[in-house]
Design a protein that fits this description.
mainly alpha, globular, binds fe (ii) ion, about 400 residues, disordered N terminus
Length: about 400
């Protein structure tokens, strides 16, 4: 998967035009054709995929399925990721088939397993348990990233079942819903990331239980602790991600200093903003430490993905080190490359150009896509005119 999946692009195409595009089957047909056309540059085909994700719905999911015949494991894994994010029941058979296909690339199988968990249908338990630790597929030697994915996916489905109304974790579900809603006066939601994640942040659990939230050093420790279940390490990761964009309480600090006069108010607000910025940077650096986390390439690739959601320039050195490490699993290096592409600072381009020649094909292709992201900042989906043109040419 790549972090550049543009949840933040909600206003990119006016809603009225988006509705028209969604009502036109030719749009989906043509985007599906672009996606499946091996004569077209991979980066452009990725844009067709992201446009389908943006349009959403069953027609998009069915158009995406057509791309699975492609040679590129990078593209196939991205198709699986997007199908998970689209949450369409019609995708369950193909995703199940991919997880169970021992001839398929492990990165694609991993992403299909994660997509089944994202769709969250209880019928997926059987295949996910087959490849989770102790399952028949895992015991038969399935690749470790797939086994780790299925461990996490089963934990996620079990967690979701406990969060149902009346269930023992219904309180956590309420905290999660509140965290995703905008604050008073239109303030941004505490949990601003719209992706369907493999695990919920652990502050949901702390808050529901009335416990103090874990500190950044505590979360870092959990992220790096290989003795903990992967689900708990992921929960720490997503908590750190949310802390990395937490707003300051500058206005509250200024209000508290109101009686001391305007200069004291301005100072209080500035100090609160500086403290918040330091805390955000500490959260990013704690996540960066996860790029060296022991015992799970799957976890490290998720760390690289999360850094792509945050897009902080201070993560660039850690990401470059990850991409340069030829002993690292290609799925981690791939994710680091794409995240570097979405950060796009000047030093990134040179390193991505170099690794376009990497020995691992998935890394080579990721660098091509990442360079396209650097060069086409903010236009990673087709705009409406391009979609309409594509449909008219179908
Ligand atoms: Fe990926
Ligand atoms: Fe992945």
């Amino acid at each position: 998967m790549t972090a550049a999946d543009f949840d933040e692009s909600e206003s990119f195409i006016p809603e009225q035009e988006l509705s028209r595009a969604r009502e036109n089957p030719l749009v989906f047909q043509r985007l599906g054709e672009i996606l499946a056309d091996t004569g077209i540059a991979l980066a452009l085909r990725f844009r067709a995929l992201f446009t389908l994700k943006y349009l959403g719905g069953e027609q998009a999911a069915l158009a995406i399925e057509k791309g699975f015949a492609d040679q590129s494991a990078l593209l196939r894994h991205e198709l699986a990721y997007v199908l998970g994010q689209l949450k369409q029941q019609c995708s369950l058979p193909i995703l199940t088939q991919i997880v169970d296909d021992s001839t398929e690339d492990e990165i694609v199988r991993h992403e299909a397993g994660e997509a089944l968990a994202a769709i969250g249908d209880p019928s997926s338990f059987a295949i996910l348990r087959k490849y989770a630790p102790g399952g028949e597929g895992a015991l038969a030697g399935a690749p470790q990233p797939l086994v780790d994915t299925c461990e996490l996916a089963v934990a996620r489905l079990e967690y979701d079942a406990l969060c149902m109304p009346g269930g023992p974790l219904a309180g956590e579900a309420a905290v999660a819903a509140a965290a995703r809603s905008p604050g008073p006066d239109g303030a941004p939601a505490e949990q601003p990331f719209l992706t369907i994640d493999p695990a919920p942040p652990c502050y949901f659990a702390d808050r529901a239980a009335g416990r103090p939230a874990k500190t950044i050093p505590e979360l870092r420790e959990r992220l790096l602790d290989a003795s903990l279940p992967l689900f708990d390490r992921y929960r720490a990761l997503f908590s750190l991600r949310d802390l990395s964009v937490a707003p300051s309480n500058a206005s509250a600090a200024a209000a508290a200093a109101e009686s001391a006069g305007p200069i004291a108010q301005a100072t209080a607000a500035r100090e609160a903003e500086e403290a918040a910025q330091q805390s955000r940077e500490a959260a990013v650096l704690a996540i960066c430490a996860g790029l060296q986390a022991p015992c799970s390439a799957l976890l490290r690739h998720e760390v690289a993905f999360v850094l792509g959601q945050i897009c902080s320039p201070i993560s660039v050195p850690a990401l470059i080190a990850s991409l340069q490490d030829e002993a690292e699993h290609p799925m981690v290096r791939h994710e680091s490359a794409e995240t570097l592409g979405s950060i796009g600072t000047p030093e990134v381009k040179e390193i991505l150009e170099k690794f376009q020649l990497d020995h691992a094909e998935v890394v080579q292709e990721s660098c091509q896509v990442a360079l396209d992201m650097c060069e086409n900042e903010d236009i990673n989906i087709f705009n409406y005119a391009e979609i309409a043109r594509a449909a008219n040419s179908a």
